[in-house]
Amino acid sequence: MPDCLVNGVRLHFEEHGQGQEGRAPILCIHGMSTSALVWGPSVAKVAALGRTIVYDRRGCTRSERPQPYATNITQQADDAAALLRALDAAPAVVIGRSYGGEVALALALRHPETVRALVLLEAGLVNLVPEAKAWAEGVMARTLAAAEGEPSDAAKALVHEILGEGAWEKLPPPLQSMFAANSAAVVAEMRGGFLEAEPEALSKLGIPLLLVASAESPPAFRHVVAAMGAAIPMARTALVPGGHMIDLAEPAVLEFVATVVREPNP
């Protein structure tokens, strides 16, 4: 699969499906500690709807990790915009999970011409809910503390916090290896801070948007999704079963994407 030089960093990306006249491309942005590999066979279901691009964000797995490594959501969003332009794939329907959802939202706010619609799978815009922000700050503190003892433990600590006790042991060994190898990226992304967007800015988003929360995730995510839904006039919300690793091919997601890839640009 090819690489693309974006903002001075080599990003690994894959393309699936076929572009069609009148259909927007689809871009998938993975969350913290993972890579495009985490989407698995669900990519094929999304790609049945049109040209689908998945990539490893800066610092993750098959993409370049500059040394010393520091990053933030603004930089990651600018990477996504540059990748879409380099691949002649803008405006796109952008799907982001967790931290990748924050990147996707920042992309829409900073580079609105690159985004036709958004799907945010438990994007953690925690500044909207004080209790959620306090919870997320605790997760960050404990994860960074784990990394001080053993750098590769950052991802393990994060999985424990977000997916629950015993979740790490249930992961297949290849996923454990991928997560552990991205521990340096976890530390850099956490130190880069959360996305902060005020309701006024969110209210100006004039694109179709689907907010997805999971019934079994930590409650903070559901509270944030509810607050985002109240702030964004065009937002739809969906509650799905399972935990934080919401499937890219959830029926609610596929139904929404099937509609918005065919809509004219707003």
Automatic annotation (TrEMBL):
Pfam families in the cross-refs: Abhydrolase_1 (PF00561)
Highest rank taxon of the organism: Bacteria
Spans traversing the lipid bilayer: none
Keywords of this entry: Hydrolase
Entry-linked InterPro entries: AB_hydrolase, AB_hydrolase_1, AB_hydrolase_fold
Domain AB hydrolase-1 residue range list: 25-153
Molecular function via GO: hydrolase activity
UniProt name for this protein: Alpha/beta hydrolase
Organism: Pendulispora rubella
Lineage, opening ranks: Bacteria, Pseudomonadati, Myxococcota, Myxococcia, Myxococcales
